[in-house]
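Minutes, project check-in

Agenda point 3 was the complex the collaborators sent over. CS summarized: two entities, 568 residues total, and the question is how they sit relative to each other. Sequences were read into the notes so everyone works from the same version.
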Amino acid sequence: MSQTLRVGYVPLADAALLIVAQRKGFAEARGLRLDLVRETSWANIRDKLALGYFDAAHMLAPAAIACSLGLAQVRAPLRAVAGLGLNGNAITVSKALFEALSAAADGDLADPAVSARALRAVVTARKLQKAALLTFAHVFPYSSHHYQLRIWMAAGGVDPDNDVNLLVLPPPFMARSLELGQIDGFCVGAPWNSVAVEAGAGFILHPCCQIVRDCPEKILATRLDGADSDHVDEEIIRSSLRDASDWCADAANHQELADMLAADCGPPVMRGTMERILAGELQIGRGGGPILPDYLCLEPAATLLSGSQGLWLYAQMVIAGQTAYSETGARLAADVFVSGASPRGLERQPQSFAGPFFDAAHVRDFIRRSAPPI
Amino acid sequence: MESQPKIAVVDENPLRAAIIEDGLREGGYARITRIEDTSRLAERLRELDPDVIIIDLECPSRDVLEQMFHVSRAAQRPVAMFVDQSDSAMINAAIDAGVSAYVVDGLKKERVKSILDMTISRFNSFARLRAELKAAKSQIEDRKVIDRAKTILMKAKNIPEPQAYALMRKVAMNENKRIAEIARSILTASELLG
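CS then shared the predicted structure for the full assembly.
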């Protein structure tokens, strides 16, 4: 008998596994009908999942933890069924800020340690000139985008809470706001950095896989209490997503996948843009660009979860001042990720470029050593 | 007495925003501002400093509000709620209608409820209005199709208008279909055979 799973998602490159599992029949082949519902905001995704309008959702990994901890507007215990992708974000800056960073750089700007120090120099100079604070946009308070910006800034000695303005903007608004000078930079997921670069609005400064290695990005989340009613075997969901992931990992399918994703996002997202993203050939807007196989990781390993991924994200929430550390909180955060944990320890573990090294056994110590310099 | 709460209505659909504003005014709320351009929403709202924000659920800028309230919570300023965490029936009603509301703490619960009730009923009546408009449009469309089919029948069978109409009605009744459907079949057939 066929089972139906109603899944909310936001049209982005990392909705690929869900879209492929549905369109290429991988879910159907296992007796699972995926009913995909487009949403326009992460707040909608959270509320509709929490209230039972969705059985599952394409969700920002930290947003699922925040919802479980009751930090969000609506409280509901959630858990991750599977990962939907690693990485995929990038930091893009306006041409003017890029010029200023280049002038202040003490080395190769492609190195995030160099660019972060340059940012500090620019921030200090602007303070002396009594110029307005630089403004950076991200997509949601509980998002890896937000934490990646903070990690990068803090590495250069920039206080993300006082030295710059951080605000949220819907991804389709980013390029235009950058062009109009309303913001100086942003961190957003694929394809929106590429869209901004191709529109000539700015330059990609860093793909976020250079800021945080193997960052858990989106997960398929479900309610903890959702399992009793209309039980859908989670192993079937995971297997369907793994099949989809095998298909996505095959470069021979990238053209078809790019077509599907570009059509799903709608204009101004072009097929060619998606194709380059899938190939890791990121156009950064100032000649060439590195080939980054890990820019957006949809391969089978990206579907695997571990409690320590949840702990790393929880640590970022504490460092950002969004919650105070507690043993209970840490355990809840890890638990969100545990139900879908891989048995063989093949999952990837995030590590930031600036350190300190993250060891899931010593989370408090990690938080203490990561605290931004005063 | 509690002073008049300041209400911001964030909706990119000007028609619906106007209907909501009218409703709230009729309900005795006078301090209402409509925001239709959401590209600089955070800035507009900071200037306005409203007590209640009503926002269309389909508006991507909902996430902008999440951040604003998140920051104000950290700064120990008034706490925001999605209506009220405990009132899930209210949240359900709001989501069904397609509206979400952010309420700054300190406003009496009854007032929030009446504002939201009003908004939900307006959102619903707007949806109804749109459905009726669509139905009216398709009625006009049907009439046109029936008229054209009638002309074809009159010519083909050399019969007067009332008889052509009666014929279509009879076939529709026999086949348990709408007259418009029969008329469409006649048009299709006439195109194919024509």
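Noted in discussion: The radius of gyration of chain B is 26 Å.
Follow-up: revisit at the next meeting once the mutant set is ready.
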